[in-house]
Amino acid sequence: MEFNEVLKERKSIRSYEYKEITKDEIKELIEFSNLAPSWKNSQTVRYHIILSDKMKESMQKEGLAPFNAQRTKEASVYIVISFVKDISGFNEDKTPINEMGQGWGYYDAGIATNQLILKACQMGYGSLIMGIRDAEAIRKMLQIPNEEIITSVVAIGKTKVIPERNKRKEIDEIMKIY
């Protein structure tokens, strides 16, 4: 799939038809996501892969909002995205470089997550980024260290229903040229 086609075709998918995803496909997704730029090439984004049925059920019951659990119950995999805090946007003495502080870590995680979902689309999978989640329940379930901030859970799987594209704002409404 051509790059522009991937950009146009990728949508938030809220209905999945179960299809097994291989560990090699997951590694490919992470490999391309990890190519994303990051603060001083710090590469602080971490990927926690939930592939087993038992762990997916636990995620649905404990980690996700009920409406997202229902929408993604047939997804092939959940990927919890986190980043190691106090690195992106911080000096060596752990003081923030500027007013954004941890915001740079979130920024880096967002770029990596975008690359992840674009690669998933290119591979023929749908995805949904879920920011409404119980970070502490997920931390406990997956034993994610306190040094990591959990940003989102991404569901990836075979699309069952392709949604209509939401109307986008006009370019003149969102852009200013100086």
Task: Describe the structure in your own words.
This protein is 38% helix and 19% strand. The protein is α+β, with helices and mostly antiparallel strands and 178 residues long. The protein has one domain (3-174): 3-Layer(aba) Sandwich (NADH Oxidase). Strands 1, 2, 3, 4 and 5 form a 5-stranded antiparallel β-sheet that branches. The model has no long low-confidence stretch (mean pLDDT 97).
So what's the overall shape?
globular
CATH-level-4 superfamily name: NADH Oxidase
Question: What series of H and E elements makes up the topology?
Answer: HEHEHHEHEHEH
Can you identify the CATH class? Answer: Alpha Beta
Cα-based radius of gyration, to the nearest Å: 17 Å
Given as residue ranges, the uncertain stretches (5+ residues, pLDDT < 50) are none
Question: What's the main sheet like?
Answer: 5 strands, antiparallel
**N-C termini distance:** 35 Å
Report the average pLDDT across residues: 97
Q: Which fold does the CATH topology refer to?
A: NADH Oxidase
Strand residues, percent: 15-25%
SS summary, helix count: 7
Structural class: alpha+beta
CATH architecture: 3-Layer(aba) Sandwich
GO molecular function, one term: oxidoreductase activity
InterPro entries: Nitroreductase (IPR029479), Nitroreductase-like (IPR000415)
Pfam family, one: Nitroreductase
Domain Nitroreductase: 7-158
